[in-house]
Structure formats: structure tokens, C-alpha cells
Write a structure and sequence with these properties.
Elements lengths: L6 H5 L4 E3 L8 E3 L5 E3 L8 H9 L3 E5 L6 H9 L20 E8 H7 L2 H7 L15 E7 L4 H10 L4 E6 L2 H9 L4 E5 L5 E4 L5 H21 L8 E5 L5 H9 L4 E4 L13 H9 L3 H4 E4 L1 H6 L7 E6 L2 H12 L8 H9 L2 H13 L22 H9 L4
Parallel strand pairs: 3-4, 3-11, 4-5, 5-6, 6-7, 7-8, 8-10, 10-11
Antiparallel strand pairs: 1-2, 9-13, 12-13
The structure holds flavin mononucleotide.
InterPro entries: Aldolase_TIM, NMO
Keywords: Flavoprotein, FMN, Oxidoreductase
Organism: Entomortierella chlamydospora
Length: 391
């Protein structure tokens, strides 16, 4: 796939490496496949980040619910030794950015303050023993909250750092275009993990958003000013090559994949959870969106958000409660509060289950595409399967 034709790859065309040709000056793009490994807490660890980067994709390291800045910086640092290209390990200023992103949960970043983001932009995630200029990650990813206050900070402190913003609605996509972000990730309801409760499937979201963004550009042009078309990526339920082709046909340059990378050998999730994913069929009925786990964990996710998980005893119980008590009619916080007050038994189950990683109780976040994942593969094999290349 060529960077001149693919808007996502073009965004990262400044990340280059030495080509195979004899000519010393021949440089080739480092990111060659428009596939982003989503930042997934507990799953997108250093091994998966490195495996995706080593194979020409673009991984995003999850910053998640951080509290300890130094611990996160240490983890980010552990990616570099796993990256294969020797050029990345030379102590010179040839390579300006490290070939991965860091992904923030924006409302959490607001609570913790911007120091970690600043540290990463300063290159604190690079090898601390380098004499040359410390390198920041090539991109910062924001999801779930207002990223706008951080754009200025990134652009002032480390110009050239790309910004990826994951959004769930057309309105948010239009706002991100106005902010001139580099990549908009359209997250459909199929997605594993958190997202907005009431949101379109990708089949509708992509063409609607792409058209709206184009209309906006035309409108501005008629007024004599210029708006850019950001690169568009699709996120949600994408597991196989036909889906990857379909989102591209609808106007996306590539895909963000979470669930599909979870059962790979390199992901940092536990093997019994990987097996549970591979055994789960039909993701449309075997996954469900819920807020119950955040309520039980005591993580105060803002109201519009919930998350998609593989159904388990707890989500079934939640649904029974809703049905039996007629709470389906009383949607929203009130209903969840009632359930939570009523659930002392469940809370005890929860503490035990969290310790044992009992997937009948604790959440196994996954998208609707989980049903199509049946075989464990390496991250590289999974990527090649998606883009239709034989391994
Ligand atoms: C286990 C898991 C953890 C996730 N954690 C995050 C996160 O920390 N930050 C974030 O922006 N998105 C997170 N996501 C959502 C992804 O960004 C992405 O939208 C989603 O994985 C795409 O759908 P898919 O899982 O069906 O491929 C997570 C998804 C999963 C499955």
C-alpha cells in the first residue's frame, strides 16, 4: 500500500527507514500497513506494541488509568529494546520520533494533570542513556473527553507529533476536523471496550461522517477558507479481510483493531482469557454493552459511556434484574443505582473474582468481531490476514 494514495500512511510518511536498495540515500516508509493496534489496558503491552511496529503497522501504547507517572514511563521505555530496526538504536538524531503512539483516556488525564503527557513529549519514554535528542512517540491518541486543551501543548512542545482522536458521532468528527487533528478514528457501536452508549454501527457512521466532513470542506472553500480532510480510521468489530476492505470502500483509510489483537501470542492478556475469546461465537449476541463493571470497580466514567464485554454471569444477572423489575423502562443512572444498591452479594463475588481473574464475573472487554476469531495467531499473521496477504 502506498503512502501517496493512503491518507493514514501519508500522515506518517516522515517516519522512514533505510530501504533495501544499495543507494545509501534511499529511504522507505516505516509504517506500511494502515492498521492501528488500539491502546488496550492489560492487553497492548510492550510485546504487542513491538510486534505491530516491527510488521509495519502502527501500535498505540495504552496509558489508561495511570496514577504513577514513573511506572508508566518505565513501561513505555521497555518497548524500544524490542523494536528490531537497528537505526532506532543508533545514538544520533536521524530518527526524530519513535514509531508508536501513546493513548490517553482524556477524562482521566484531566484528573491527573498534564505532566505525564509533557514528559512523553520531552522524550522521557526513550532510552535514558542516549546522548542525542530524546525522541517522543510519533503520535498521541485521545479518547473519551475533551482533548482540545492538550492540542496547543502538543503543538508547542513537540511540533510534528501527530494527533489521533477517537470519536463516536458525526458532530465530534466535525469538531475534530475544525481542530485540524491528523487522524479521526470513527468508533462504531461494534467496538470492544468503552464507547458511547448510543452510537451508530460503522456501516452508517463512516459514510455519514465522511460525507459531512467533505461537505464542510466545500462550505469553507465557498467562503474562501480552507479546511483539511483528516485521515479516517474505522474502529469496531473488524476481524477479517472482508470487513477491512468494506470500511475502506466506505471512505476509511484503515482500521483500528482492538479485540482482534487480544488473542495473539504477543498480547499481554492471560492465556485463559485468550482462549475464552477464541471460543466465543457470534459476537452480536455474545457481547453486550454495560456500565455495571465500572460501577462495581468504582471508576466514575462520564454518563454517555459504557463498554462492550463478552456476556458473563454478571451481565446476565444485570439483564435479569432489569427485566424482572421492569427497569428496562427506567433506563439510565437511576436504574443502575437501584441494581447496585441491591447487589451486596455481587460485590463480594466481585472481590473474589478480581483476585482469581474469574471471567464469569470480571469483564472481558471485546467487540462484536470476537465471533470470527477462532485461531490463535501472531500479530503479524493477524495483520496479514486482514490485508489479504499470505503468510
Ligand atoms: C480490552 C480493551 C481495552 C480497551 N482500552 C481502551 C483504552 O484504554 N483507550 C481507548 O482509547 N480505547 C480502548 N479500547 C477501545 C479501542 O480504542 C477500540 O475502539 C476498539 O478496540 C475497537 O473495536 P474492536 O475491539 O472491536 O476492534 C479498548 C478496547 C478493548 C477491547
Amino acid at each position: 500500500m502506498s503512502a501517496s494514495k493512503n491518507a493514514f500512511l501519508a500522515t506518517f510518511k516522515h517516519l522512514t527507514r533505510a530501504g533495501a536498495s544499495n543507494s545509501a540515500s534511499a529511504r522507505v516508509p516505516r509504517i506500511t500497513k494502515p492498521i492501528v493496534a488500539a491502546p488496550m489496558n492489560g492487553w497492548t503491552g510492550p510485546n504487542l506494541v513491538a510486534a505491530v511496529a516491527n510488521h509495519g503497522g502502527f501500535p498505540v501504547f495504552p496509558i489508561g488509568y495511570f496514577t504513577d507517572r514513573n511506572a508508566i514511563i518505565k513501561e513505555v521505555r521497555s518497548v524500544l529494546p524490542l523494536l528490531k530496526d537497528p537505526e532506532l538504536h543508533k545514538d544520533d538524531d536521524e530518527v526524530e520520533f519513535l514509531p508508536y503512539g501513546v493513548g490517553f483516556i482524556t477524562f482521566w488525564l484531566d484528573q491527573q494533570g498534564p505532566e505525564l503527557l509533557i514528559n512523553l513529549l520531552e522524550g522521557k519514554g526513550d532510552d535514558p542513556n542516549r546522548q542525542s535528542r530524546p525522541r517522543p512517540p510519533a503520535a498521541v491518541w485521545f479518547s473519551f473527553g475533551d482533548y482540545k486543551p492538550y492540542l496547543k501543548l502538543i503543538r508547542e512542545r513537540r511540533p510534528g507529533t501527530k494527533v489521533l482522536v477517537q470519536v463516536q458521532t458525526v458532530q465530534e468528527a466535525l469538531e475534530a476536523q475544525r481542530e485540524n487533528v491528523d487522524v479521526i478514528v470513527l468508533q462504531g457501536t461494534e467496538s470492544g471496550g468503552h464507547g458511547i452508549q448510543k452510537v451508530s454501527p460503522l456501516m452508517t457512521l463512516i459514510p455519514t461522517a465522511v460525507q459531512a466532513l467533505k461537505d464542510e470542506i466545500a462550505l469553507e472553500a465557498a467562503r474562501g477558507s480552507k479546511l483539511n480532510m483528516p485521515a479516517i480510521l474505522a474502529a469496531g468489530g473488524i476481524s477479517v479481510a472482508s470487513q477491512f476492505a468494506a470500511v475502506q470502500a466506505m471512505g476509511a483509510s484503515g482500521a483500528v483493531i482492538g479485540t482482534g489483537f487480544m488473542p495473539t501470542y504477543e498480547s499481554s492478556g492471560p492465556q485463559h482469557a485468550k482462549e475464552r475469546l477464541l471460543q466465543t461465537g457470534d459476537g452480536g449476541i455474545n457481547t453486550v454493552r454495560t456500565r455495571i463493571f465500572d460501577e462495581l470497580r468504582g471508576i466514575d466514567w462520564p454518563q454517555p459511556y459504557d463498554g462492550r464485554v463478552v456476556r458473563n454471569l454478571l451481565t446476565n444477572r444485570e439483564e435479569e434484574d432489569l427485566r424482572e423489575r421492569g427497569l428496562y423502562q427506567q433506563k439510565g443512572l437511576a436504574a443502575f443505582r437501584l441494581i447496585k444498591e441491591d447487589r451486596t452479594g455481587t460485590k463480594e463475588d466481585w472481590v473474589r473474582a478480581a483476585k482469581e481473574q474469574d471471567l464469569d464475573i470480571v469483564p472481558l472487554w471485546a467487540g462484536t468481531g470476537v465471533g470470527m476469531l477462532t485461531k490463535q495467531a501472531s500479530a503479524a499473521e493477524f495483520i496479514d490476514q486482514l490485508i489479504g496477504e499470505q503468510h
